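ugh ok so i messed up the first submission bc i forgot one of the chains. this is the corrected input, ALL of the components this time, i swear. 912 residues overall. if the numbers dont match what u have on ur side tell me asap before i send this to the collaborators (the ones from the other lab, u know who)
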Amino acid sequence: MVDQQDRTVKWPEDVAREMSEGRFDTAEMVLNVGPQHPATHGVFRLLATIDGEVLIDAEPVIGYMHRGYEKLVEARDYRQITNLVSRMDWLSGISNELPMWMALEKLMEIEVPLRAQYMRVIMVEMNRILNHLMFFASFGAELGAITPTFYAFREREDIQFALEMATGGRMHFGYMRAGGLKEDVPKGFFAQALKGVRQVIARLDQYENLLIGNEIYKQRTLGVGVLSQDMAYSYGVTGPIARGSGIDMDVRKDDPYLVYDHFDFLVHTAPNGDAFDRFWVLLHEVVESARIVEQAIEGIPSGPVLGKVPRVIQAPKGEVYVRTENPLGELGFYLISDGDRRPYRMKIRTPSYNNVSVLPPVLKNTFVSDMIAILGSFFFVLGDIDR
Amino acid sequence: MPVTERIPVDEAVERARAALSGRAEVTSNQGAVDVTCARPDLVGVVQTLRDTDGLRFNFFSFLSAVDWSEYPVEEGEQARELEVLILLYAPERALHVAIHVPVPFDDPTCPSITSLFGGAIWHERECHDLFGIVFGGHPRLVNIYLPEDFDGHPGLKSFKLPTRSLVKEWPGAKDPDEAAAGGR
Amino acid sequence: MHIDIVLTAWQMLIVKLLVILTLVPLVSLVGGYALHKELAHLQHRLGPMYPGGFHGVGQTLADGIKFILKEDIVPANADKTVFKLAPALIYVPAILLYLVIPIDKHLIVEDLDVGIFYILAIGAVAILGTLMAGWSSANKYALLGALRAAAQLIAYELPIVLTAAVVAMLAGTMSVVGIVEAQNWPFVLWPPGIGLVAFLVFVTGAMAEMTMPPFDMPVAESEIITGAFTEYTGMRFIFSFFGAEMAHLVAYGAIAATLFLGGYKPIVPWGPLEHIPGVIWFVVKVVLMFFVMIWARFTWPRLREDQLQKFAWKFLIPVSLLLILATAAWILYAPESLWTR
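and heres the new structure output, hopefully the right one now
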């Protein structure tokens, strides 16, 4: 045993004596979790200082996927930006397009027809189901349960098929326009969407039993990674993570946009703020989304899907902040327009950026294995953090 | 907390004016309260907005910067330079407040609000990275996105995105051998 | 038909070596394929379908060939001798375990008098191999994995040893064939209670010895990649990780079947069942053990390291000690008529 600092050799007798005297000289190890690691969702690096199996300090290092969105959008027409911002939270492509078009419609005072609003709700909620099922798959896999992954992907297939029927894409859609949607949905879309959504509702009990009811799963997630409400407020944590800490905040209810006030759905919160609660909220939100889609498909009126828009999409001078409930949290676009066809400045407030910034205090003094469980329960997408 | 008190924006503007008592200019814009204040008053203003009953803007949304140098200036308006933009949220009232802090180009500093909101730690680092603003009192002001030796601040309007012919040379090694010999 | 084959001792030795050296890799191949297929069908998918033509039977063989053709990388900072030696210390004990597995009364490579003792001792050598692999890799993840493995494998040796001791006490011999012969009713059914609990403890301990989920902290794929074997590539990886796991799985399944399920004897001593040859019974039991262990493997998430240790030291080992006491009491005080030897 060579001690790196002063190059003296410690014989076993010395080590034994030190241990019995109560001072065992342990060294801290700096472990780089990532940027290539199976458990971090993407190129995410965590500089962990560990002492044995306990994490003393954790510093996330981001920016491996920084594409400079806020600079790129300043040189692009609004319709080009749609496809760009789809690639932020790539698990729910259409939810990223929505706030941008809403901000533009607010500045330009365009009215969106009712059918388009219902369709937007249907699409966004289906994307929410896709997103949450993906996290269901990956959380189980990180804890070692590899089976839920396959069940979740089976459910996603039906919904992605429906979305492909309407938009042509399975992940990135480019379907929204100023004043509504690009085009109306084909025949059979509603039937397929209903089928996919009803299957999710029917099978949710299975998922709950498979993962949440599992003794070992409970041991791994109860009390792990507790996020207090004060910390969530101070860091601006939103979405299922905040609701898992008992904060009853959902943009769809607080500040209803589109036609969310026409639907009857619950906002689930859980009191404890540990990994178990966050995941519980996630699963139950899937059911609520499915119910919203059902109600929307039943109540959707006929009519145009594109409102009256001028030929050139040009926002007047002004500033506006529009936010929506992205599956990961609150996605907001602060749009400053100077009257041109391109935005002057578009600040994109992404949910994962704030959610991940709260990791250093949450990860203090946890085990290495708990770190993985906490990272998994924090539902972030790299494209959302790095923009 | 669920929304407990829904008030019209003008009422919130009145309350904010009363609480801030002249330290800042308060108006409303598109359904949100709009506050403009000077740099030295920033920490006090944010603390007042956060702690006053009746306002309680205690949820941190984001902190960013805007480079107004290329904005078309109308007659009677003054040309603006840089500006730090802070957005806070009051969950009990479902209201936002946007705080604008003008920052000149020749002295790009601003006091840090990390003592009030922990979320500002990363957001101020991003501002520093992309706009070059130095936040006084920040615990660890290093680049968050770009490498330490990056030249320039891309968020500024003066940093033009290069077209293909003007692209800078790739600063690292091009061959595996060069890389082994010590290139990046 | 009775054929008398008389071979010299040296010829017997060579025959036995050949049998073992072909049997064990074959078992790894077939076991690997069975694993892929079972996992797939229980996860609502098909598994290997193309290699080998019919339902992917050539999958593991193709994998093996691929691994042989891979580049042999030894990290620059690694301790080369130890690094290269470690896979041997993991795979060779797996092969040696097969020496004392009784497929039928006389179909055993070598019926050692100290059968169980030998099994337990050889099984413990793999711990050393894992530690060597992790330490010599010059990789922090490998080190984490190796230390976790060392702690876990040592902790779970004890339940296996103690429950094997229970079986040895009940059978009155350590020889494997002797143990099977002593089981008129398999030990899992008689003595009531003791046998079943011992069986469950043994299987749990065996799964932990093989670092299978829910005890696979040392090779927790989503955390420390492959733990101690992260830096291994190609054939070294197969020998230390996957091949050894398959070989161990079937070996421990066979040992559990031998010690508790009655080995090559029928599951219950009922007349008509005794006409079925012992080999068939043995294969059926091993397949059953294999199936159940894989099933448990992919259903549960993994226990955290400290929870794992708690489970071993605060639960399994006290239970095993109680079992020894109970067995001793049974042997001393149960009336002769209850003993169905």
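quick check: Residues 331 and 337 of chain C are 12 Å apart (CA to CA). that seems consistent at least. The two ends of chain C are 31 Å apart (CA to CA).
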